[in-house]
Amino acid sequence: MNRNKYIQLCLIVGFALLTQLCAAQKEADSLLAIVNQLIYEDPDKAIEIALEAYEIDNSAVKTKVNALLAISVAYSSKRDYQKSLEYAIRIESYLPKIKNEKLKMNVLNRIGAQYQELKIHDKAIEYLEESQLLIENYPNQDSVQALLGYNSILRGFIYREQMNCDIALTYFTKAIDAYLQTLSQTAMNANVSICYYNQGNCLLTLKRIEEAENSYLEAIKYSERVDAKSLIAFAQKGLAEVKTLEGDYTGSIAILNSALMNAEKVGDLVLNRGLYLGLSTNYLALNDWENYTVFNSKYLELEKETKLNERKSINQSLLSLTEGKAKEIEQLKKRFGPIQIGLVIIIFIILLMFIRDIIISEKKLKKLENKLKN
């Protein structure tokens, strides 16, 4: 009877713990679902909710990793690369615990993205190649197209800076093709928009004006499907550049003013800086000195602030890399220290034996000399 009561008690406690774990997991997942909708439009709120999800006790490793990823991406959308990298690096400690291959691909892509933002391209490529290898070997290719798209666009960014736009366009096109296969998920329209926008930028650099205009229009179309104000504004900025090159300064200003309205709630320093530069350039072309002075001053102010943020982020990144190398060296010391001591002892013993043999040989030689004398 006592044994039965003990078993019943264990079952009740086990069920209570399981219920608690499920409730914690459900709460964390619900919070992260909200976060994914807010990352680009209200990153501060997204960070607040993601931190809450991360700190929930008993949540799974996958949930904690996704929370850290969301925080990193949200800081990146604010152009705070120092904080973004900080949270991306925190994810690395979870990598050995991640059993889900697709989550591991995503984590590697995201860490690579932060290094790409900081222009530490060798480190970025290292993570992207590791992720790409997992993607290529994954049996269900349809389910990893979003990850392939992200990996490809990041490579496009890197090769645009390291090499040229002709090479980068190959990767932007590859990213578009991959993301177009994922549009059953509405949010993926935003990613297609980003790819078309960057494709347009490269085409504009190559003076392929008409093709660039088509890319920007596609970017606007896909961003409007998810009402992503910041992405709409970026694409409008690109379209305005086309109008400027065509000499339609008034048309360009109209598009840029519309973009400013879309960008108001986002607070993206780089976006606003680009819009202010575009407006000042067009007003200068129209000899409107008053408006040129206003927007040029705003541009220079944001330029200074952006450079300061980038410098802080790069310093933090270099510090992290230095600390990482120091840990590696310390581990090598711990690993090879005993081996080195052993080698020294062996060499010492060999030397002693060698000296002993020399002494013995000398004694034998002296004995032989004495015999010969006698």
Plain-language structure description:
Keywords: Cytoplasm, Membrane, Repeat, Signal, TPR repeat, Transmembrane, Transmembrane helix. Residues 1-23 form the signal peptide. The chain crosses the membrane at residues 339-359. InterPro entries: Bac_ResReg_Asp_Phosphatase, TPR-like_helical_dom_sf, TPR_rpt. This is Tetratricopeptide repeat protein. The chain is an all-alpha fold and 374 residues long. Among the domains are: 22-98, Serine Threonine Protein Phosphatase 5, Tetratricopeptide repeat, CATH 1.25.40; 248-305, no CATH class. Helices cover 84% and strands 0% of the residues. The chain is built from 14 helices and no strands. The protein has helices at 2-38, 43-54, 61-77, 81-92, 101-117, 121-136, 145-162, 165-179, 188-205, 209-225, 229-245, 249-263, 269-285, 289-373. Helix 11 (229-245) packs antiparallel against helix 12. The radius of gyration is 31 Å and the shape is elongated. The model is unreliable at 5-25 (pLDDT under 50).
Main sheet attributes: strand count, strand direction, barrel closure: none
Question: What is the overall silhouette?
Answer: elongated
| The first-level CATH class name of one domain | Mainly Alpha
CATH fold-type name of one domain: Serine Threonine Protein Phosphatase 5, Tetratricopeptide repeat
Q: What distance separates the N and C termini? A: 105 Å
Pfam families: TPR_8
Protein name: Tetratricopeptide repeat protein
Main location: cytoplasm
Keywords: Cytoplasm, Membrane, Repeat, Signal, TPR repeat, Transmembrane, Transmembrane helix
